[in-house]
Specification:
This protein has one domain: 60s Ribosomal Protein L30, Chain: A. Helices cover 30% and strands 29% of the residues. It has five helices and six strands. It has a four-stranded mixed beta sheet with strand order 1-6-4-5. It has a two-stranded antiparallel ribbon with strand order 2-3. The longest helix has 13 residues. The radius of gyration is 15 Å and the shape is globular. The two termini are 23 Å apart. The mean pLDDT is 94.
Length: 157
């Protein structure tokens, strides 16, 4: 299982990126990289399931090489580590927790982006969205969080 959360940022030129795709109309998230909470949670879930640590262990949290980095770079690096250890992704289930933006109009596009990045058919990737009924920082619309659960398969079997 992976988790990530970031507050909305103050950089006017930073787009909101989720699951490797831009979501128009909202400010980007404050983070060292592009702040893609979906891909960060997915990477943590993949690394954890394979016993390879977490995103911070593998890529560092302040490494200047990853300043404003596209999180797709992290996904590619994690998938390469999994492949070298005989692991493949069986399926993925993500839940985005946010009061804003409403993700319903973007869900299919985000899910397709996620499936493409992982090399999976769309029917093995779930992307759900929920809010917190205005409870806490996420409920006040201050940021976005994501939970991700993965099933790894042994590609040698």
């Amino acid at each position: 299982q992976g988790f990530d959360a970031h507050p909305f940022g103050e950089k006017a030129d930073r787009p909101l990126v989720l699951a490797g795709a831009v979501v128009p109309g909202e400010p980007g998230l404050a983070a060292h990289s592009d702040g893609d909470v979906v891909l960060h949670a997915v990477c943590d879930a993949l690394l954890g399931a394979a016993g390879l640590g977490d995103l911070g262990d593998v890529f560092g949290t302040e490494d200047p090489a990853y300043a404003d980095a596209d999180s797709q770079v992290f996904v590619a690096g994690v998938l390469a580590r999994l492949a070298s250890g005989r692991w493949g992704v069986g399926n993925l289930d993500c839940t985005v927790i946010a009061q804003r933006p409403r993700l319903g109009p973007h869900r299919d596009r985000l899910r397709a982006s996620l499936a493409s990045l992982l090399g999976l058919p769309g029917d093995r990737v779930a992307l759900k969205a929920t809010g917190t009924d205005h409870v806490g920082a996420l409920g006040r619309g201050e940021g976005i969080a994501c939970l991700a659960a993965v099933l790894l398969v042994d590609v040698d079997d």
